[in-house]
Amino acid sequence: MADKTMKAFVMKKIGSVGFVEKPIPKAGPMDAVVKTACALICTSDTHTVRGAIGPRENLTLGHEAVGVVEEVGSEVKLFRPGDRVLVGAITPVWGDIASQAGHPSQSGGPLGGWKFANIKDGVFAEYFHVNEADANLAKIPDGVPNESAVYCSDMMSTGFMAAENGDIPIGGTVAVFGLGPVGLMAVAGANLRGAGMVIGVDPVASRCELARSYGATVVLDPTKCDVVKEILRLSGGGVDCAIEAIGSTKAFADAVRVTRPGGTISNAGYHGEGEFVMIPRLEWGVGMAEKTIKTGLCPGGRLRMERLLRVLMSGKVDPTRMTTHTFRFDQLERAFEIMDKKLDGVIKPLIVF
Description:
Rossmann fold; 27% helix; alpha/beta; Quinone Oxidoreductase, Chain A, domain 1; 353 residues
């Protein structure tokens, strides 16, 4: 790294983004520096810029990336410069008490495993830093292209988590509210878990078509029908699992409404607005219908990433069907605008470095 600085795409302040020059990061003893190969823009990046987690000044955005190891610290044992690697969007501190209790995504406090573009610079830069490299990086197998592997970092990990948290029985019924990238991967995850019926809910025709390709049995447009009544009818009185994958108070309430007594509401959506998320009292059985509400933050770590890469190698899921746009790194400002305003039928924009 002869150059001392790099180009980075940052949140300058609430509502403002752009490119700046920053120093190239250095690796601590247990850490790594990765040269970015490709990345994805997430809707949560746009929430951040709008102020969902408070003000940030010149914070590098982005948390979904793959690349090539540029530098490793003296204590790193499993990775060397030149390795092609995937890094999870969530990079826990694995010795933290929350990690030891089985909740690594919450290490350091609520959502504390979420470091990129939250409490440290993210991945929309020519190089980025990874803490605890041996635990938070994964080598990408030769047969998996970067454009596929990058989906493991968040979209597959989060969407599959939603299905895993849903305790879906083999042959069970599932409703997925919101068919953005996380919802689409929740549909795929529900099928991998053995669901017998998966009902998707979204008003966008292109997303509905993709959901069918990932295994949705039925897709409902909330602008054209009463989705609660229709899901109750289709499922015979309520689904075993309802997945909220959009971050909408109404969708969350509807997820509670359509879940059968004893079922599970699995929340993967980012609720970036408002002070409260409301639970419909009667449909919750006035608190006694044994409906479990489970929440989660994208699981990270090498083991998780290696497992997801195996899913790609098996050919069971092709996440690249969600890539609707491809941009060069220097076009990131336009790509971010398209994702923020949901222009041109965007589902997921890929950034190539």
